[in-house]
Amino acid sequence: MITRTFPINAPVRQMRLIDPTPEMWMDYQAFLDEFIAAGEEGILYGLPDESGDLEECILRLKYHTEGLDQANGCVPCSAYWLLSEEQTLLGEIHIRHRLTPALEDYGGHIGYMVRPSRRGKGHATRMLSMGLEKARDMGLARVIITCDPENVASACVIRKNGGRLESQSIVRDGRLTCRYRIDLE
Q1: Model's pTM, two decimal places?
Q2: Is 171 domain-assigned?
Q3: Distance (Å, rounded) from C-alpha 55 to C-alpha 77?
Q4: Which of 4, 133, 145, 155 is the most buried (most CB within 10 A)?
Q5: Taking each helix axis from N to C terminus, what angle separates 123-137 and 152-160, rounded to the nearest 10 degrees?
Q6: CA-CA distance, 151 to 95, in Å (whole number)?
Q7: 8 Å CB contact between 40 and 101
Q8: What is the mean pLDDT of the segment spanning 151-157?
Q9: Are 126 and 15 in contact (CB under 8 A)?
């Protein structure tokens, strides 16, 4: 079993991961708006199309989990939302059920994000820990997580959850990426 450490200030109270649900569409819109206002919309997954139909966006996340709508080399991918004990949407995590060779190199099994106003409080560390439990429940024995070398915060989160730097490589757009491995058995 992997020992995970959490920062002293990490609130471990009643945070939980939930499946995306249309009942939270207003919360999800506020979550997305915060990334857009911060100029970080490029990291968002499954944005609503121009119609702004959040319910359709949430349905697409469900389709990805079930392996439907797998165009352009996509693989089945489960999305979860991290809720605080006050039911505030803090973050989103995606767990790919398997990897293609391209995803093995860049993208990995897990991607996550914490809303800009709630960063630096240990939420990503806790969310990744819960996500790793979900990955284990899916039958994954190990996961690959990638991040840019400049993303020191993400690398720290990965290492706190047992991640070991496996390699660094230049990806298709010419950027350097770091590949971390976490064994789940």
Answers
A1: 0.84
A2: no
A3: 18
A4: 145
A5: 50
A6: 20
A7: no
A8: 95
A9: yes
Q: Where are the alpha helices (DSSP H) in 17-122?
A: 25-37, 54-66, 101-105
Report pLDDT digits (tens) over 72-92.
667 888 989 999 999 999 999
The predicted pLDDT at position 122 comes to 94
- For 125, the enclosing helix (H) or strand (E) is helix 123-137
Count of domains for the chain = 1
To which residue do tokens 């991290």 refer? 82
User: What residues make up the domain containing 131?
Assistant: 16-140
Counting Cα atoms < 13 Å in the Cβ hemisphere of 37 gives 9
Residue-level pLDDT at 45: 56
Q: Is 94 helix (H, G, I), strand (E, B) or coil?
A: strand
**54 or 93, which is more confident:** 93
153 lies in a domain? no
Residue 67, in any domain of the structure: yes
Closest alpha carbon to 135 in 71, 182, 87: 182
10 Å Cβ neighbour count for 81?
Answer: 22
Q: What CATH number is given to the structural domain containing 96?
A: 3.40.630.30
DSSP state of 100: -
DSSP bridge partners of 79? 94
Q: What are phi and psi of 129, to 5 degrees?
A: -60, -45
Instruction: State how far the Cα of 9 lies from the Cα of 13, in Å rounded to an integer.
Output: 11
* Nearest alpha-carbon partner for 15 in 111, 96, 92, 90: 90
Is the residue at 157 inside a domain?
no
